[in-house]
Design a protein that fits this description.
The protein is an all-alpha fold. It has one domain (7-185). It contains 3 helices and no strands. It has helices spanning 7-58, 63-124, 130-185. Helix 1 runs antiparallel to helix 2 (63-124) and helix 2 packs antiparallel against helix 3. The radius of gyration is 28 Å and the shape is elongated. The relative contact order is 0.09.
Length: 187
């Protein structure tokens, strides 16, 4: 018996596939919009900071004051660059999470369909085919286990990456802050 002999089953499967693709496309577009807005706001901020920094440098009365102004501008610029990087990472992580949830949902639906198909096939299979059905069920269980392990590993990598990004961010901000403070003390 063909699994899709019922037109409603075929229509339902097609609708599910289209819904999943639309969900993925919408998530990708939302992420692209957020990145574009972030880039536009960052470009605007960089331009404004450059203009005000240039005006401040041009208003310096001597080289020492110009160096002091330049040093005072470094810390906020690094902090803004770190904030930008953090925002890009957060947007990417959220997009990856949405993609992962969608794929998990699809895989769960696929598992259910395969289990139903396998049960139907087992009921109508000739005598003695229970060994083949058991082998297929075992292969499906192994595939499910592999998918679960892969999913857990991906989540662990994401958590480790997030921790490393946070640590690198903090270290960068502290290093620039210490450098700026040392530069001010030497004057």
């Amino acid at each position: 018996m063909n699994y899709f002999t019922n037109p409603e089953q075929l229509a339902s499967a097609n609708k599910t596939a289209v819904d999943s693709l639309l969900s993925l496309a919408n998530a990708a577009l939302a992420s692209a919009e957020r990145i574009a807005a972030l880039n536009l706001n960052t470009a605007r901020s960089v331009l404004e900071d450059s203009v005000s920094g240039t005006k401040a440098l041009l208003g310096a009365k001597d080289v020492q004051e110009a160096l002091s102004i330049q040093a005072s501008l470094a810390q906020p610029n690094v902090e803004k660059a770190v904030a930008y990087s953090r925002s890009v990472y957060e947007i990417s992580a959220q997009a990856q999470e949405e993609l992962s949830k969608t794929l998990e949902g699809q895989f769960g639906g696929f598992q259910k369909q395969v289990a139903e198909l396998l049960d139907k096939a087992a009921k109508s299979a000739p005598a003695g085919s229970d060994v083949a059905v058991a082998a297929v069920k075992s292969a499906i269980a192994a595939a499910n286990s592999a998918f679960d392990n892969l999913n857990k590993a991906a989540k662990q990598v994401a958590e480790i990456t997030e921790a490393n990004v946070a640590a690198a961010t903090n270290a960068t901000v502290k290093a620039v802050g210490a450098s700026a403070a040392a530069g001010k003390k030497s004057k």
